[in-house]
Amino acid sequence: MNYSGIKYTDMINGEGIRVSLFVSGCSHFCKDCFNSDTWDPNYGSPFTEEIENEILDYFKKYNKSIKGLSLLGGDPTYIDNIDPLVSFIKKFKNSFPEKDIWIWSGFTWEMIVTNPKLLS
């Protein structure tokens, strides 16, 4: 999985001060998308364990100031993003169970739950 950027003090993409991870890859191709560069799953840089640790370390350092994690892109539910993000979310929730996670996707939660094949 690639990512196009990280905002460490984001107050736009969710409630409170958040860390926002912008992933690459999207199959929705929405008209007037503000971030169409991220449709390409190869756009940006590889999301490595080093980047995961950088995010987790930031939460450790500024834990009391940050409300949660936002995942957007591209689309976090793009097929190539699912496994790496689930792995990262598990690490994140193990370290910070009190923090919330917002996921911005072209699918609603109801669509994903009732038709998980949408993600494949």
* Number of β-strand runs: 5
Number of domains: 1
Percent of residues in helical segments? 25-40%
Q: Beta-sheet strand percentage? A: 15-25%
Question: How much is the average pLDDT?
Answer: 93
Count every helix, treating DSSP H or I runs of 4 or more residues as helices: 3
The helix/strand series, from N terminus to C terminus, equals: EEEHEHEH
Tell me, briefly, the overall form. Answer: globular
Strand order of the largest sheet: 3-1-2-4-5
Give the biggest sheet.
5 strands, mixed
Radius of gyration: 14 Å
Classification by helices and strands? alpha/beta
Unreliable parts: none
Distance between the termini: 15 Å
Would you give an account of this structure?
The protein is of the alpha/beta class. The chain has one domain. Helices cover 30% and strands 22% of the residues. The protein contains three helices and five strands. The chain has helices spanning 49-61, 79-95, 109-114; strands spanning 2-10, 18-23, 45-46, 68-73, 100-103. A five-stranded mixed β-sheet has the order 3-1-2-4-5, covered by helices on one side. The longest helix is centred in the C-terminal third of the chain and has 17 residues, at 79-95. The protein is globular and about 35 Å long. The two termini are 15 Å apart.
Keywords:
single chain, 120 residues, alpha/beta, five-stranded mixed beta sheet, globular
Brief overview:
The chain is α/β, with parallel strands linked by helices.
Q: How are the SSEs placed, and which strands pair?
A:
Layout: E1 2-10, E2 18-23, E3 45-46, H1 49-61, E4 68-73, H2 79-95, E5 100-103, H3 109-114
Parallel strand pairs: 2-4, 4-5
Antiparallel strand pairs: 1-2, 1-3
